[in-house]
Write a structure and sequence with these properties.
Helices cover 26% and strands 34% of the residues. It has 5 helices and 7 strands, in the order H-H-E-E-E-E-H-E-E-H-H-E.
Amino acid sequence: MGQNQRSQITMTDDEVQAFLVQQRSATLATIGSTGAPHLVAMWYAIVDGEIWFETKAKSQKAVNLRRDQRATFLVEAGNTYDTLRGVSIEGTVEMTDDPELLWKVGVSVWERYNGSYTEDLRPLVEFMLHNRVAARLRTDRVRSWDHRKLGMDPIPLGGSTAASIGE
């Protein structure tokens, strides 16, 4: 019978935090009106150690979260089995239209994906935040994995999708 490798690949809290800081995109799952998952790619911010994002106030994910605050947030990386890493967070999302919090999240998102914020960029961030709300993910459960901890020999990148990696 095979050995359970879950404990070998679980990230520490510090590794989870570092991974989330380093990555750029996530998948957010909310619950649609029929009960089906609604998945969207998201950019995100980390503010005071918590995951935040901003979204259009009338977006489907915002509508879903007003109805049911439960969500799952997935961040993953790796192109071969030996390099797969990820963090899946289950929790609840609290949305706010508080201008100060929205601005703080907006500037954090701007810096994460565009570079340092300066006051001359204010009109761009204001445009980005028009008709948006800020949302904070309150963590209930974290699952993580880092296959690099298995000590496997490197697996060459291959398969029908290999040519598109890095585009």
